[in-house]
Every structure is written in structure tokens, then in C-alpha cells.
Amino acid sequence: MKSTDCIFCRIAAGDIPCAKLLETDEALAFLDVNPLTPGHALLIPKTHVERLDEMTGSLAGQVLRHLPSLARAVQQATGAPAYNILQNNGQLANQAVGHVHFHIIPRAPGDAFRFNWPAAQYAEGEMEAMRQKILAALE
Ligand code: 5GP
Ligand code: ZN
Questions:
Q1: What local confidence, expressed as pLDDT, does residue 6 receive?
Q2: Cα gap 48→98, rounded to integer Å
Q3: Is 131 a residue whose pLDDT tops 90?
Q4: Contact at 8 Å (CB) between 48 and 3?
Q5: Is the minimum distance from the CB of 33 to ligand 1 under 6 angstroms?
Q6: Per the count of CB atoms within 10 A, which of 12, 26, 29, 90 is most buried?
Q7: CB distance 32 to ligand 1 below 6 Å
Q8: Measured between alpha carbons, how far is 123 from 90 in angstroms, rounded to an integer?
Q9: What integer best gives the mean pLDDT of the chain?
Q10: Pocket test for ligand 1, best of 21, 23, 33, 115 (most atoms within 8 A of CB)
Q11: What is the pLDDT of residues 81-120, one digit of tens each?
């Protein structure tokens, strides 16, 4: 995808306005235009990278180092006693904008945000087999 076709690249370039919260040479944070809860914010790299696994560790560090201070500020401003960090990769995982972004979603008692968490169990030996596969892929 060309960066001119990407809504978040256009926001990062200043071509589309945003409610900016933080900006460095590498990172930008702004309020989500359609918040799940008031104060819902997004943190993005300014360069176009579609998915988290396509980021270098260095770029991830330059972006993610702002997550704790952003989470503190959003909590303080909203009075939210809790928050979720959400990061979707791929259409199947509900990624609508193909430019890496981290959602900071403040939570309040009784808010409407829900997610399904259908926790399962491994059969005998399956967990270790999976661990070995992931270890091999990490090498
Ligand atoms: P995703 O489903 O890709 O993880 O989430 C994309 C998010 O980007 C959505 O929460 C959506 O509201 C937000 N979004 C999409 N377009 C814009 C925009 O032009 N400006 C802002 N501030 N947020 C946007
Ligand atoms: Zn982009």
C-alpha cells in the first residue's frame, strides 16, 4: 500500500487533522475518532508498517516507550479505574486500518465494551508440542 492511500500515514503527515496527544520523530498518539469509550486513544509509528510482526525491534521500542505515560495520562484524564491495550493484526483479527496501531481503551464500570474470551484447554502433550514449534520458529 502507498502511504497516500493510508489514513494513518496521512494523519502522520499532517494532511488529515487529528486530536493529537503526543508526537516525536517516530511516533504519534491521538484520540480515536469513533471511541469505544471516552478517551480511547491510538499510538502509531509514523512510518507505514502494516502489522506488528513487520516492525523492527528498534521501531517498536521507539513507539512503545510512550505507552506507559500515555496510559497514565488517559487514566488520569478520564478517571478510568482500568484500561485495555488492544492491537489487531490482520482482517481476521479485526484490523480495519492497515497501519500498526495500539489502542488505549479506558474502562468504566458498566461501559459497553465487551470481548469474548473462550479459554480452552490443551490435551495431554499438546502444550509442550506447541512450545517446541514456537521455540524452533524463534531460532
Ligand atoms: P482497528 O480495527 O484497525 O484496530 O482500529 C482502527 C481504529 O482507527 C478504529 O477504532 C477507528 O475508529 C479509528 N480510525 C479510523 N479512521 C480514523 C481517523 O481518520 N481518525 C481517527 N482519529 N481515528 C480513526
Ligand atoms: Zn500507513
A1: 98
A2: 9
A3: yes
A4: yes
A5: yes
A6: 29
A7: yes
A8: 28
A9: 97
A10: 33
A11: 999 999 999 999 999 999 999 999 999 999 999 989 999 9
